Amino acid sequence: MSVIEVEDVWKRFLIPHERRTTVLETIAGALALFGGRRSTFEEFWALRNITFNVTKGRSIGIIGENGSGKTTLLRLIARVMTPDQGRIAVTGRIAPMLELGLGFHPELTVKENVVVFGAIMGLQREKLRKQIGSIIKFSELKRFEDAPLKTLSSGMQMRLAFSVAVETDADIILVDEALAVGDMEFRRKCLSKFKEFKNEGRTIALVSHDLNLVTEFCEDALLLSQGELVAKGNASHVVQEYINETESQSASAPTVNQVIDS
User: Is 117 left (phi over 0), alpha (psi -120 to 50) or beta?
Assistant: First the structure.
C-alpha cells in the first residue's frame, strides 16, 4: 500500500529583481517599497513534473546537488507548503524533522522548550509530561535542563529538537539532514533510533548528502537535478548513477591551468 503518492507535482517561487547601480537608486528603491511600487519578478521552478510513490514501511532516500529541490519536496509532503500543480496524498500521521529547533524560545529553559516544541510536534500533553525525562536523557542535556536555551550551542539545541521529534508516534517520518546533528556518538544513537522505526514498520523519507547512509539505510531512492526527477528505484543503483554523473561532470570541467591558458 502506498502511503505517500506524489503525482505531477510542480512548485514555483518568484524571485524579485530590481536593478540598482548607485546609492541613490538603492535608497529610491527602498522608498518605493513603502509607496507600494513593485519590483519585477523572475519565475523559478524548484520542482517540475515530480511523480513517485512510497510503500508503507519502506525507507526512501532523496539525493541530488544543492538547490535540486530536495528540501522543497519534503516540505510539500509535510504540507508546510502547497504545490502549484499536481497532487500529493499522504496516508498516516507525519513527523516532519525539517527545520530542527523551529519553535524554540531562547529565554525559556531546556525543559520548558521540550514542552513547547513537543506540543508543536503533536505530542499529547499528558504523554509529553511523562516523556520529558527520557527526551532530555536522549539529548544528553540533563545537566542543562534548567538552563535558558540561549546558553546552549546550536548543536546542543538541534540535539534537543531531534530528541523531541523522535518521541512522536508518527507513521511517516520526514528527515532533512537531521542525522548531521551532534558528534559521531550522537549520530549513531540517531541512526539506531531510525533503524528501530524501520523495524516497527514506519515509513521514512530521508534527504541526505551522505550517500553511504542512503545506501545503508534506504531501500529506494530518488535523484533530483535542477528540480527534475532524473532517476528513481533501488537505492544502490540510484546512488551509483549520481556518483557516475558527478564524476562525469568533474572530468569535463576545465582545470585551473586550462582556464589560465585560455
Answer: alpha
Residue 34 to residue 178: CA distance in whole angstroms? 40
Q: Distance between CA atoms of 186 and 191, rounded to whole angstroms?
A: 9
DSSP state letters, 162-205: HHHHTTS--SEEEEESGGGSS-HHHHHHHHHHHHHHHHTT-EEE
- In this predicted model, what pLDDT tens digit does every residue of 72-118 receive, in sequence order? 999 999 998 999 999 999 999 888 877 655 678 999 999 999 988 88
> How much is the mean pLDDT over the chain?
85
φ/ψ region of 227 (left if φ > 0, alpha if ψ in -120 to 50, else beta) reads left
CA distance 35 to 80: 31
pLDDT in tens, 10-27: 999 988 766 555 555 556
Measured from the Cβ of residue 197, the count of other Cβ atoms closer than 10 Å reads 17
Q: How many helices (H) and strands (E) does the chain have?
A: 9, 9
Query: What per-residue confidence (pLDDT) applies to 120?
Result: 79
Spatial neighbors of 231 by CB under 8 A, at least 6 apart, are 221, 222, 223, 237, 238, 241, 242
Q: Mention every residue, 6+ apart, whose C-beta is less than 8 A from residue 58.
A: 203, 219, 220
The answer to whether 48 and 229 have CB atoms below 8 angstroms apart is no
Q: CA separation (Å) from 159 to 33, 97, 205, 215?
A: 40, 12, 20, 24
Q: What is the pLDDT of residues 186-216, one digit of tens each?
A: 888 888 888 899 899 999 999 999 999 899 8
To the nearest 10°, the Cα dihedral for 239, 244, 249, 254? 130
